[in-house]
Amino acid sequence: MKIIDKVKKFIKEKDLINSDDKILVGVSGGVDSVVLFSILLKLKASMDLELYVVHVNHGIRGANATRDEEFVKSLCDKNNISFSVICEDVPTFAKENKLSEEEAGRIIRRRSFEKIREEIGFDKIALAHHIDDNVETFFLNICRGSGISGGRGMNSKNGYYIRPFLCLTRSEIEEYAGENNIEHIEDETNLEDEYTRNKIRHNILPYLTKEINKNSICHINSFMER
Questions:
Q1: Neighbours of 25 (CB within 10 A)
Q2: pLDDT of 169-180, one tens digit each?
Q3: pLDDT by residue (tens digit) across 139-164?
Q4: Buried-most residue among 14, 32, 140, 158 (CB within 10 A)?
Q5: CA dist 58 to 24, 28, 74, 90, Å?
Q6: What is d(CA 26, CA 24) in angstroms, rounded to the nearest whole number?
Q7: How far apart are CA 93 and CA 88, in angstroms?
Q8: What is the spatial distance between Cα 21 and Cα 52, in angstroms, rounded to a whole number?
Q9: What is the pLDDT of residues 99-132, one digit of tens each?
Q10: Which residue from 152, 157, 113, 159 is spatially nearest to 134, judged by alpha carbons?
Q11: With contact defined as beta carbons under 8 Å apart, do 205 and 136 qualify?
Q12: How far apart are CA 224 and CA 78, in angstroms?
């Protein structure tokens, strides 16, 4: 099954998107969010959707953060999609609230998306989380002492948040980007092991896939769904 057909099937099964929906899309410039934007653009005409992009500049990566912002702005201009950028000082917010920068960034992004959604009166917020992200969340939850509910990970629909890519692995998204020549930006912090999620992404999941079972990630995701 083609990736776009797989996403359409998932959207229908989970009732994530309806005709005439107004959808705010979080776009960082990375491959996951840019491919999500690309696929929603393809659905825009057939489902009569209205799209609006929000990009959050976390105030962490200096010139590279400005580069990402300009990339997303150019992407939206090229496709005639309205766009907002939110600039925040995540390191300061993290220190003031005694949080990791990883958690502070997540809170800031959510606040930004929700603020813009309310201002423009949109129906939903689409995020590009995928199967690998979900399995990373599983390990984060159980390692931090979660109860049984933590085993569920992310929901495909949670209030006005939707995750149309929870049917795709990271490799499938990267494959789609390559096949369709979709340009994106690589956030260099994703290559580091400073953040807890990256430690799981770079060390635990590859080990499970290589040494235990090549389908480990999909099997764990199926377990979470059940």
A1: 24
A2: 999 999 999 999
A3: 999 998 888 888 888 999 999 999 99
A4: 32
A5: 19, 10, 19, 5
A6: 7
A7: 9
A8: 11
A9: 888 889 899 999 999 999 999 999 999 999 999 9
A10: 152
A11: yes
A12: 39
3-state secondary structure the chain: CCHHHHHHHHHHHHCCCCCCCEEEEECCCCHHHHHHHHHHHHHHHHHCCEEEEEEEECCCCCHHHHHHHHHHHHHHHHCCCEEEEEECCHHHHHHHCCCCHHHHHHHHHHHHHHHHHHHHCCCEEECCCCHHHHHHHHHHHHHCCCCHHHHHCCCCEECCEECCCCCCCHHHHHHHHHHCCCCCCCCHHHHCCCCHHHHHHHHHHHHHHHHHCCCHHHHHHHHHHC
Cα angle: 223, vertex 16, 155; to 5 degrees:
35
Q: What backbone phi and psi angles, to 5 degrees, belong to 209?
A: -70, -40
Which region holds residue 48: left if phi is over 0, alpha if psi is between -120 and 50, else beta? left
Q: What are the CA-CA distances from residue 142 to residues 53, 116, 123, 138, 145 (Å)? A: 33, 33, 32, 6, 5
Strand pairing class (50-57; 161-162): unpaired
- Strands 124-126 and 157-158, bridge-based pairing: unpaired
* Distant-in-sequence, close-in-space partners of 77: CB < 8 Å, separation ≥ 6: 83
Instruction: Tell me how far apart the alpha carbons of residues 87 and 111 are, in angstroms, rounded to a whole number.
Output: 12
153 class by beta-carbon count within 10 Å (0-12 exposed, 13-18 middle, 19+ buried):
buried
What are 146's strand-pairing partners?
none
